[in-house]
Structure formats: structure tokens, C-alpha cells
Amino acid sequence: MPGTRKLGRTADHRLAMLRAMVTFLLENGRIETTVTRAKEVRAVAEKYITIAKENNLHAKRQAMAFITKESVVKRLFDDIAPGYSNRSGGYTRIIKTGPRRGDAAEMAIIELV
User: What would the pLDDT profile of 59-112 be if each residue is shown by its tens digit?
Assistant: First the structure.
């Protein structure tokens, strides 16, 4: 994927981290992380919400290949995606919360709108 941030990780570690964070975001509705990670998670999460809006077998298999929990995929197709049926993008919101105490990294909350 051109234009993605490396986030100081190898490709495998970065993909695993994004899978976990997207799964957690779809499961809980909001997560707190750094601003750069939130921006990467937003891109991937919105892609899978858009895929889920189609609600066919191919879309479910695509989601199952990336999202790590079957229950979250079911929730995505049954609850989350139908709620955005008349919205074309912009499913998440990033709110900056200030610097982290330990290393002053800029923190943010990413949540489903």
C-alpha cells in the first residue's frame, strides 16, 4: 500500500498491529492510541466498513481474512454497517487528547461516529 506509515515496525508486525487495533475498534467502538496510529487505523477500518455495506459472501470472507474475531465480523455486518447505509465514508472520528506523559507522544481517541 503506497502512502502508508511504517510506524517503526516490520511489515508483519505492522499488519498484526493494525489487525488487532481494527478488531478492537469495531468491537468496542473507540480506542485511545497515538495520532499516527489512529490515522492508519481509520483508513483500514473505513475500508472494511465499506466492504461490509455490500453484505454478500465475498465481503464476509474478505472481512474474516483480516479481522481476528468472528464475533466482531458478525457485529460488523449485522449492526455497524447497516447503520452507515446512507453515509458514503467518514465512519470514524479522531479526537486529539494531548501528549502522553511518558514520552510526550501526541495521543488521540478514535471512535465510530
Answer: 999 999 999 999 999 999 999 999 999 999 999 999 999 999 999 999 999 999
Q: What CA–CA distance (Å, rounded) separates 106 from 113?
A: 21
Dist. CA 11–CA 17, nearest whole Å: 10
State the Cα–Cα distance between residues 3 and 70, nearest whole angstrom.
29
CA nearest neighbour of 48 among 71, 34, 64: 64
- Asked whether 21 and 36 are in contact (CB, 8 A), the reply is no
Distances in whole angstroms, Cα of residue 43 to Cα of each of 57, 90, 110: 23, 10, 11
* Whether the model pTM is above 0.70: yes
Domain boundaries defined on the chain: 11-112
CATH number of 11-112: 3.90.1030.10
pLDDT of residue 17: 97
